[in-house]
Structure formats: structure tokens, C-alpha cells
């Protein structure tokens, strides 16, 4: 059975760029947008056009250069935002306006100083206005994660009637548990008239480290678009990491859900975004971290040397990463040392290897990592011969 397609909506250039100190210039945004298209994302959220003249021109240029992907611009449910976004997206082959408003009690009462009824009216008016410019209108119910499901369903039904094509259900504050978020998506599917004619989208933040799990729960319960960023960059603890959701779906074919992403470009895309944003990727980051495919403890190294899959669920080549590495530390065993010595040209018998291992441990206790150069010196100093 062919897997159902999950649309990947990348918001690295909009929500991701909201990271403090991560300003990208127009040229950098164009380069990243080109890479995202190569990667195979379905939607590029290029920016928030009304926010600054620079963001407006960046969205305009990305709209003009992008051939296959939909190009999206964010707005609030504010007339001028929508008009400006429509202008910025004029040259896009597939333009989308992403408009919305806060729907949780906290947002309605304290941020908008409004009422549920007035918010509903603003949502409808925003979608209608956006629809007068473009066919493809996505509506976000900000803080949907903490919005009462019955009110959320009313808002969703109303904006579908007004012409929305995609409904974004953001867990803006990263509050939900996966069961809760999945149940919210299921509730909307079961209770909103016309929902079968639109795409439900997840947009999860990582404040509790649950963004990826929540996004997966969302698609398992019927969402068909995931909003995410490269390396999970974004405000506070960030957004759902694109590389994680893509590889989870790829690694679990029984879910029967897949994306259009060329996974072999994940590592180079991660490196590009990290360098341009000046945001290093943590070494133990899933999929793209420097240690994602390196093994340093003796037990694991022994297993991987015998059969890679004993401790690796992904072939590094699948994500464009260099081969798995066996890192030599004081926790490494004889098997790893023998393997690395052999790789650099020394095939020792057991007793010589035992001798090498004893000297190696002394060295490894002093150094964090023993590299090939150290091994050559060790062999020479100890006078080891095959
Ligand atoms: O997190 C959020 O709610 C957002 C919306 C503006 C889509 O980023
Ligand atoms: Zn967000």
C-alpha cells in the first residue's frame, strides 16, 4: 500500500529566524530557501512581510525564485498585514497567506483584550480578505494547545466556511502531552463540519521537549501537514525539528505515512542553517548531531563492528552523514582498538594487541579522545610489530 503523503511546511525562515541573535540577511534567506526546495519541502514559510521592509523584500525574492514549493507569508488577523503579504507574494507560483489569531482564554482575554465572539469575527474577516488575494489560505489558531476544544472547533468550522484551505493547530507554548495533542486533532476531525475538505496542520513548540512527539501524534490522528524547522531552531526551546519527524516517518513504515524529503540532503542542510544562523547544533542532537552516528563505549563498539544495526537504527548515508565512527576513549575495548589499528594499517595478533591495549588505556585516561595520530606514535614508542 502506498504511504499517505505528509506535507512538510518549513518555517526556518519565519518562526526559526525568531531566535534571538539569529538574523539572516536577504541573500542568506535566498540560499536557504533554494536548499529547502532541493530538500523537497512542500511549503516554505518565507517570512512575516509586514514586520520589516527587509522581511518584505526577502519574501518577495523567495516568491520570485521558488519553482516547485508553495511560498507562504505570515500575517496577523489585521487588514494591513494581509494586504502587505499578498503584495509580497505576488510573484509566487504557488502563494499561500498564513493568517490567524489567538484563541485560548489567556490570549483572548489578556493579549487581545477581547471576547471569543469578537475573535471569531476577526478570524472570519481575515480569512475572507486573504481569500480575495490568493486561493490557498492557511488559518492558525494561536495557542490552540491550550484552547478549549469546543470553541476551537467553532473557530475551525467558521474559517473553513470563510475559505481556509489549511487549518494550523499550534501548540504555541509547547504545553501539550502527545496523547492530548493527538486527541485534539482527532476531536477536530470528528466534530468540525467540512474538515475533510481541508488539510489539518501541526505546529508544535518544544518547551517541554515534546515538539517532535506531539507532531507525530498529530499526524497519527489525522493531520496531514507538519510545520517544522531545520535543527528545530525557533524561539525559546524551538520548533519541531524537520529532520526528526521526517526520519521517524521513514523509520516506521507501518504508520504508512511518508514525506517528499530527500533525506540524503538533511546533514548538509543542517550544517548550512547552523553556520548561517550562527547556531551550533548540539553534539547529541538526533539525526544531525556530530555524535549521532559515533560509538564510544566498548560494548557498543564491539556490537557495531560485528553488525552495524546492533546499535544503529539509521544508516548514516541515508541522511547524508559521514560513515559511523568508532571513537577511541578510555571506555573503548580491545575490539575497537584492533579495528582502528587495522584501518590505519596495523594487523596485530592477540598478544601484541593486548600489549597495545594496555598502553592505549594509560593514554586514553589522559586524553579525552585517542586519534589516529596518537595510535601511530603509540605503535612506534612501544615498538609493536605484527
Ligand atoms: O507558534 C505559533 O502559534 C505560531 C503561529 C504564528 C503560527 O508560530
Ligand atoms: Zn510557532
From TrEMBL:
Pfam families: HCS_D2 (PF22617), HMGL-like (PF00682). Its EC number is 2.3.3.13. Keywords: Amino-acid biosynthesis, Branched-chain amino acid biosynthesis, Leucine biosynthesis, Manganese, Transferase. InterPro entries: 2-IPM_HCS-like, AIPM/Hcit_synth_CS, Aldolase_TIM, LeuA/HCS_post-cat, PYR_CT. It is an enzyme of class 2 (transferase). The keyword Manganese applies. PANTHER family: 2-ISOPROPYLMALATE SYNTHASE 1, CHLOROPLASTIC-RELATED, HOMOCITRATE SYNTHASE-RELATED. Belongs to the alpha-IPM synthase/homocitrate synthase family. LeuA type 1 subfamily. This is 2-isopropylmalate synthase. The gene is leuA.
Amino acid at each position: 500500500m502506498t504511504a499517505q503523503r505528509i506535507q512538510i511546511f518549513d518555517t526556518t525562515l519565519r518562526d526559526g529566524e525568531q531566535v534571538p541573535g539569529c538574523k539572516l540577511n536577504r541573500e542568506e534567506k535566498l540560499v536557504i530557501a533554494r536548499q529547502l526546495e532541493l530538500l523537497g519541502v512542500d511549503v516554505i514559510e518565507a517570512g512575516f512581510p509586514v514586520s520589516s521592509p527587509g522581511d518584505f523584500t526577502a519574501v518577495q525574492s523567495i516568491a520570485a525564485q521558488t519553482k516547485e514549493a508553495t511560498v507562504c507569508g505570515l500575517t496577523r488577523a489585521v487588514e494591513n498585514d494581509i494586504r502587505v503579504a499578498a503584495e509580497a507574494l505576488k510573484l509566487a507560483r504557488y502563494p499561500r497567506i498564513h493568517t490567524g489569531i489567538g484563541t485560548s482564554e489567556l490570549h483572548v482575554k489578556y493579549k487581545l483584550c477581547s471576547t471569543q465572539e469578537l475573535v471569531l469575527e476577526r478570524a472570519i474577516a481575515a480569512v475572507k480578505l486573504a481569500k480575495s488575494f490568493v486561493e490557498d489560505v492557511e488559518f492558525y489558531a494561536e495557542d490552540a494547545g491550550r484552547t478549549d476544544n469546543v470553541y476551537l472547533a467553532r473557530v475551525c468550522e467558521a474559517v473553513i466556511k470563510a475559505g481556509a484551505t489549511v487549518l494550523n493547530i499550534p501548540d504555541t507554548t509547547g504545553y501539550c502531552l502527545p496523547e492530548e495533542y493527538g486527541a485534539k486533532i482527532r476531536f477536530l476531525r470528528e466534530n468540525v463540519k467540512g474538515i475533510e475538505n481541508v488539510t489539518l496542520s501541526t505546529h508544535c513548540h518544544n518547551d517541554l521537549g515534546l515538539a517532535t512527539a506531539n507532531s507525530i501524534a498529530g499526524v497519527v490522528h489525522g493531520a496531514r501537514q507538519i510545520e517544522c524547522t531545520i535543527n528545530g531552531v525557533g524561539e525559546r526551546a524551538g520548533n519541531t525539528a524537520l529532520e526528526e519527524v521526517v526520519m521517524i516517518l521513514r523509520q516506521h513504515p507501518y504508520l504508512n505515512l511518508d514525506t517528499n524529503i530527500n533525506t540524503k540532503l538533511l546533514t548538509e542542510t543542517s550544517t548550512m542553517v547552523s553556520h548561517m544562523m550562527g547556531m551550533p547544533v548540539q553534539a547529541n542532537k538526533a539525526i544531525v548531531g556530530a555524535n549521532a552516528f559515533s560509538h564510544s563505549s566498548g560494548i557498543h563498539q564491539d556490537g557495531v563492528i560485528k553488525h552495524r544495526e546492533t546499535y544503529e537504527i539509521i544508516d548514516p548515508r541515508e541522511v547524508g552523514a559521514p560513515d559511523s565512527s568508532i571513537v577511541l576513549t578510555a571506555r573503548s575495548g580491545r575490539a575497537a582498538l584492533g579495528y582502528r589499528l587495522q584501518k590505519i594499517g596495523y594487523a596485530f595478533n592477540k598478544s601484541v594487541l593486548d600489549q597495545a591495549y594496555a598502553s592505549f588505556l594509560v593514554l586514553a585516561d589522559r586524553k579525552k579522545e585517542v586519534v589516529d595520530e596518537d595510535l601511530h606514535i603509540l605503535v612506534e614508542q612501544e615498538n609493536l610489530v605484527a
